Amino acid sequence: ERNEKAVAANPRNTAAMKELVRDEYQLATAQTAPNATGFPKEARDELTAAGRWWQRYLKAAKGKPDASLANVALQVYTALNKPKQGQEAAEIVAAAQETPASYVRVVQYATLAGDKRTADLAGTKAVDLAPKSEKKTVRDQVKQAKQTQAAQPQG
After folding, report:
1. What are 46-61's pLDDT values in tens digits?
2. How far apart are CA 26 and CA 41, in angstroms?
3. What torsion, rounded to 10 degrees, do the Cα atoms 49, 54, 56, 57 define?
4. At what angle do helices 83-97 and 67-79 cross, to 10 degrees?
């Protein structure tokens, strides 16, 4: 509530928005049973609120979003089955981490979102970033990400 007031007083208060994304995600997580693999229906409102705060934060951050917060957003959009928004968050994380694994994750979300071009570009980047000894493995991971994800429903 304090952070909501801070954003109401200053709509560009990115620090408060970041806290609101994390707070709403924490509230959703608190409703999850131990050893559960997903969020219960009861957590949907908090996840949706976290997603709204993330979108507001992105607009206010003006192209310089926090990659660790993007990781939280990625979890939110995974739980909400929103691959396009998940792809956006995965791209922010990948740009910050610059690892093959982070770009393979972009391939997964882009494929789910139906964005073949981004999936292809991210796959190329993942292979390019891999050490020579791991390129074949990363190529296989990219191929698998495209195949297994294409079979899932798009949200």
Report:
1. 999 999 999 999 999 9
2. 15
3. 140
4. 150
* The pTM of the whole model exceeds 0.85: yes
Query: Tokens in use for 111?
Result: 């494929």
The token pair at 27 is 């509230």
How many residues comprise the chain?
Answer: 155
Q: Report whether 28 contacts 46 (CB < 8 A).
A: yes
- Dig out the tokens for 110 from the structure: 């882009």
Looking at residue 9, its amino acid is A
- Alpha carbons 8 and 34: distance in angstroms, whole number: 35
DSSP string, 34-69: TT-SS--GGGHHHHHHHHHHHHHHHHHHTT---HHH
Give the ranges where 98-153 is alpha helix by DSSP (H). Answer: 100-112, 116-129, 135-150
Q: Please write the tens of the pLDDT for every residue from 65-100.
A: 999 999 999 999 999 999 999 999 999 999 999 999
Q: 155: number of CA atoms within 13 Å, CB side? A: 13
| Cβ neighbours of 80 (radius 10 Å) | 19
